[in-house]
Amino acid sequence: MRSLSLRRFPKIMLGIATVLLGGSAIAAGGPGAPGLGDPYYPNDGNGGYDVDHYDLRLTYRPSSDQLSGTTTIKATAVQDLTAFNLDFALSVSAINVNGAAARFTRSGAEYTVTPAAELPASKPFTVEVTYSDVPSRVSGSTWVKTSNGALAVNEPHIARYWFPSSDHPRDKATFDVSIAVPDDGTTVVSNGAFLGSAVETGGLKRWNWRNVNPTATYLTFVTIGKFTVNHATAGGRPYITAYASNVTGATLTNARNSLNRTPDIIDYESSVFGPYPFAAIGGVVVPNLSFALEVQTRPVYGTAFFGSRANTSVVAHENAHQWWGDNVSGDTWRNIWLHEGFATYAEWLWSEHNGTGTAQQIANSTYNSRPASSSFWQVVVANPGAGNEFNAAIYDRGGLAVHALRVAVGDTAFFNILKTWQSERKYSTGTIEQFIATSERVSGKSLQAVFNTWLFTRGRPASPPGAAFDAEAFAAEPEPPAFAEIQETHRLLAEQHHAH
Question: E.C. number, please (predicted)?
Answer without folding.
Answer: 3.4.11.2
